[in-house]
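Hey team,

Filing this mostly as a record. A colleague (T.K.) asked me to run one chain through the structure pipeline before their review meeting, and I want the input and output archived in the tracker in case anyone asks later how it was produced. No errors, nothing strange. Just documentation.

Input sequence:
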Amino acid sequence: MTTDRGEPILRVVPRPGDINANGHIFGGWVLSQMDIAAGIVASREAEGPVATVAIDTMEFNAPILLHDLISVYARVERIGRTSIAIRIEVIATRDRGREEVKVTGGLFTFVALDENHQPRPVKRG
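Output structure:
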């Protein structure tokens, strides 16, 4: 199922160990979830292994709270000769599903890798 946000790739609930001193979820935790989701899509598009080479336009719009359900959406933004850019949007569902908040988003760029871990051309369908 694809929406304007893209395809839902991950849904996860942060654990108590993921909170910082302010009671919010660590930025690094959500960044990791975004990278995992973007990597799934990039690997599928590249039909093989990929590596993250850049994260652009990262923005934090609202904090993630302990009991939020986090949904990570992804869509292919562009495909280059050896690279794939994936747009990520993270939505927090709160208050037992009554509220959705866009908490962050970003553009993750991956390079397709060959068997020697070197860049290779992305196969085009």
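Quick notes for T.K.: The first helix runs from residue 27 to 46. The mean pLDDT is 93.
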